[in-house]
Amino acid sequence: MTTTDPLRFKAPVDAECAVDPLCCAPLGDAVLAQGDAEQLADALKALADPARLRVLSLLRAAPGGEACVADLVQPLGLSQPTVSHHLRVLADAGLVTRQRRGTWVWYSLRDERLAEIRSVLR
User: Fold this and answer.
1) Is residue 55 within 8 Å of residue 76, measured between CB atoms?
2) pLDDT digits (tens, 9 = 90+) for 9-66
3) What is the C-alpha separation between 82 and 52, in angstroms, rounded?
4) Reported pTM
5) Is residue 90 within 8 Å of 114, Cβ to Cβ?
6) Please, what CATH class does the domain formed by 34-121 belong to?
7) Per-residue pLDDT tens over the stretch 47-63
8) Per residue in 67-78, pLDDT tens?
9) Is-contact 55 46, C-beta < 8 A?
10) Residue ranges of the domains in the chain?
11) How far apart are the C-alpha atoms of 91 and 58, rounded to whole Å?
12) Following DSSP, what letter does each residue of 2-54 receive, concatenated?
């Protein structure tokens, strides 16, 4: 059976390659290395929560593109410890940065990391 699926795992016979040029095409640069795939999976796990998606949206809309936990509690309708937890998960996944200023920690988006994720998913 001939197919045009370039991700097929079974090695095709030579006759198939003559009929279907995609069956033997190299995968090229689009293939993720194991470490990159694990980092992407961690980032996607962090994004797989509605509250965290809202945090990203609020950070994008925040004046200066940054906010502290106190700024996010009321719009999210969540407790301060819960908001802190979500921000920690996002920071650990490399999706936001944190910067301490006195007693406050300010969070902002890591646009370059979000752009990397978008490019892999295209």
Assistant:
1) yes
2) 454 555 555 556 565 655 556 688 898 889 899 999 999 999 999 999 999 999 999 9
3) 11
4) 0.72
5) no
6) mainly alpha
7) 999 999 999 999 999 99
8) 999 999 999 999
9) no
10) 1-31, 34-121
11) 15
12) ----TT--SPPPHHHHHH-TTTT---GGGSPPHHHHHHHHHHHHHHSSHHHHH
